[in-house]
Specification:
The complex is a heterodimer of chains A (110) and B (113). Helices cover 0% and strands 58% of the residues of chain A. Chain A has 110 residues and is mainly beta. In chain A, the strands form two sheets. In chain A, strands 2, 4, 5, 9, 10 and 11 form a six-stranded mixed beta sheet that branches. Chain B is mostly beta strands and 113 residues long. Chain B is built from no helices and eleven strands. Chain B is globular, with a radius of gyration of 13 Å. The termini of chain B are far apart. Classes of the chains: A mainly beta (110), B mainly beta (113). The interface between A and B is medium-sized, with 26 and 26 residues.
């Protein structure tokens, strides 16, 4: 089966660091995506991890542990514009489709 | 830049109507997807297509059908709209293969009254 879990909401302060966790249980799972979605807009791609370890991309980093079924998205030097939903997603069975978690709404406060 | 365009941003239809949601992508992507997004439930896959005239059911296909007659166009059809199909519908496309990012359209907010 396939199940992707992430916290519903998080709040952090401008300039701080926040870590958004994602756990998954799925057979044949080979990697994990992170997307950002601002309110009223379409999701946009942030990162993809296929190998274990940390991938850094500017202020955003993503980590994957396939053996633990665990990933996180790390956002540094938070800005107000980072207030958005962050969606964890992975290839579904057969690999052609992408399965999404329910998303984590991040509120950045001044 | 990849562009995925959905035909309508907002749509209001009556119960029992047949509804067509159109999606066009301009980057020659093999894969196309239809999702619906509801509060607390996230994005749920309705149907996807990995080639022209090919389609596969996603997790919630009931009440929906799709058509992909041309590579760039993927249509979602609600045969007889019902109020529980009121939702945000998102179309996406990606390159062929399995480890490729999805590009989303701007979404269609459908209200069935």
């Amino acid at each position: 089966g396939q199940n992707i879990d992430q916290p519903t909401e998080m709040t952090a302060t401008e300039g701080a660091i926040v870590q958004i966790n994602c756990t998954y249980q799925t057979s044949g799972f080979n990697g994990l995506f992170w997307y950002q979605q601002h309110a009223g807009e379409a999701p946009t791609f942030l990162s993809y991890n296929v190998l274990d370890g940390l991938e850094e991309k500017g202020r955003f980093s993503s980590f994957l542990s396939r053996s633990k079924g665990y990933s996180y998205l790390l956002l540094k030097e938070l800005q107000m514009k980072d207030s958005a939903s962050y969606l964890c997603a992975g290839p579904g069975t057969g690999g052609f489709k992408t399965i999404f978690g329910a998303g984590t709404r991040l509120f950045v406060k001044a | 830049d990849v562009k995925v365009t959905q035909s309508s941003r907002y749509l209001v239809k009556r119960t029992g109507e047949k509804v067509f949601l159109e999606c066009v992508q301009d980057m020659d992507h093999e894969n196309m997807f239809w999702y619906r997004q509801d509060p607390g439930l996230g994005l749920r896959l309705i149907y996807f297509s990995y080639d022209v005239k090919m389609k596969e059911k996603g997790d919630i296909p009931e009440g929906y059908s799709v058509s992909r007659e041309k590579k760039e166009r993927f249509s979602l059809i609600l045969e007889s709209a019902s109020t529980n199909q009121t939702s945000m519908y998102l179309c996406a496309s990606s390159l062929g293969g399995i480890f490729t990012e999805a590009f989303f359209g701007q979404g269609t907010r459908l209200t069935v009254v």
